[in-house]
Write a structure and sequence with these properties.
Elements: H1 16-35, E1 37-39, E2 43-46, E3 51-53, E4 56-58, E5 63-73, E6 80-86, E7 90-93, E8 101-103, E9 114-116, E10 125-134, E11 137-148, E12 152-157, E13 166-177, E14 182-186, E15 195-202, E16 208-217, E17 226-232, E18 240-245, E19 256-261, E20 264-268, E21 276-281, E22 290-293, E23 296-299, E24 308-316, E25 319-327, H2 332-363, H3 365-386, H4 396-409
Parallel strand pairs: 2-11
Antiparallel strand pairs: 1-4, 3-9, 5-6, 5-10, 6-7, 8-9, 10-11, 12-13, 13-16, 14-17, 15-16, 17-18, 19-20, 20-23, 21-24, 22-23, 24-25
Protein name: Ig-like domain-containing protein
Transmembrane segments: 338-361
Main location: membrane
């Protein structure tokens, strides 16, 4: 039988019946896999709040072996396992604990939900919830976490100075918001005088700063006009309104000194910001009886040592002006001397008059003077009634008449 070969026919590992069973099992398993679902969903939370990462397995009768969580976040863009739950060991952290996460699910109920408190922008990303089943293996769903960041709103006074050119008056800033905040102005009648500009600054962490400014001519007419900056953001439930009175800055104008009361003077001016007042005495030391109180200068006692030149200076960061005040108080000693001198002069005159009267009285002249004076008075009075004109050339004629008149008068 040399040269003869026997060939044994090949026997397949699976018979036709086994192949049919395998195909049937695969079909059933595929049907089961297609029927089960892992339900999650998108989650949006405001920074600082609490997010619920809901995840549930439904429509399966397979055995659950393990629940796992993975994440890719803004703070760590690498896919990492960070949490597992098993029937034996329960919930556990992987690759470091983060106590902000809390398992609020149920292994028996195929509920894998996590609670994340005090959410930050770095937590934003995609979270993967994974159920490991036997015999079908892993089944998962992605849960995007979107973090909203409210703006930090503020107003900036641009300190415009009085002038005729258009300048930036005030700026409203909604900083670091996600998504970008909307900024608008309420200006009433001022809308015809000023204009607004808005710009956006995008940051690497995904936030945006919105900046809006009002421009106009810095005049006294718009000073103290009320405007409102209205900030709207999806991260907040209501609008934020910031109020501002437009300021126009200028140095002190004309400085006036008014006499507010006796011995008190007040320095007055117009300035923005309000002026600070400084009283000084030019070329002399400050008197003890003079009191400086802001814009007021008060003399406690009006004496001649206050005499001199004083100066009120009004100043603010934009400039200064001053006004002089000359004070002159008559000396009390000088007044007393003049009074004594007057009294002495009156006394001297009285003594002289009395001495003259006494002299004439003692010498008899005073009596004769009085008698003669009275005689003249009567003579003049009666003579006017008895005197008549005469044509006689004798000198004795008018003399007699005058004498008769005189005698008659006596």
């Amino acid at each position: 039988m040399d040269g003869c070969f026997f060939v044994q026919p090949w026997t397949p590992c699976f018979s036709r019946s086994n192949t049919i069973l395998l195909l049937a099992f695969t079909l059933i398993l595929s049907t089961v896999i297609e029927a089960l679902q892992v339900i999650g969903g998108n989650v949006t939370v405001v920074q600082g709040g609490t997010a619920i990462l809901s995840c549930k397995l439904i429509d399966t009768t397979e055995t659950l072996s393990q629940i796992s969580w993975q994440k890719i976040t803004r703070g760590n863009p690498v896919n990492v396992n960070f949490f597992v739950v098993s029937e034996v060991d329960g919930p556990q952290f992987v690759n470091g604990a983060d106590d902000r996460f809390k398992f609020i699910g149920s292994f028996e109920e195929h509920l894998a939900s996590l609670q994340l408190s005090n959410v930050t922008l770095r937590d934003e990303g995609t979270y993967m919830c994974i159920f490991t089943l036997f015999p079908s293996g892993n089944h998962k769903t992605d849960i995007p976490l979107n973090v909203l960041v409210p703006p930090v709103s503020s107003l900036e006074d641009n300190h415009p100075t009085l002038g005729n050119e258009e300048v930036s008056l005030v700026t409203c800033i909604a900083a670091g918001s996600k998504p970008p905040a909307e900024v608008r102005w309420l200006m009433d009648t001022l809308a015809e005088t000023v204009r607004e500009t808005t710009s956006f600054t995008h940051h690497a962490n995904g936030t945006t700063t919105t900046t809006s400014s009002l421009f106009g001519v810095a005049s006294k007419e718009i000073k103290d006009h009320l405007v409102q900056c209205v900030v709207t953001s999806k991260a907040t439930s209501k609008e934020e309104i910031l109020y501002f009175n437009i300021q126009v800055y200028f140095p002190p104008t004309e400085v006036r000194i008014s006499d507010s009361s006796e011995g008190s003077f007040e320095c007055v001016t117009e300035a923005n910001p309000k002026a600070d007042f400084t009283w000084t005495r030019v070329g002399q030391a400050w008197p003890q009886s003079a009191v400086r109180d802001g814009a007021t200068l008060r003399f406690q006692k009006m004496t001649s040592d206050l005499n001199g030149l004083y100066q009120c200076e009004a100043s603010n960061p934009y400039g200064k002006k001053h006004s002089p005040l000359y004070v002159h108080v008559a000396s009390d000693a000088g007044i007393a001397c003049w009074i004594l001198f007057g009294l002495l002069l009156i006394a001297v005159v009285a003594v002289v008059v009395a001495s003259v009267v006494w002299y004439f009285y003692k010498s008899g002249r005073f009596t004769r003077l009085i008698g003669n004076s009275l005689s003249r008075t009567r003579e003049d009075t009666r003579g006017e009634r008895t005197m008549v004109p005469t044509t006689s050339n004798s000198p004795e004629g008018p003399l007699r008449v005058e004498e008769e008149a005189a005698e008659g008068s006596l």
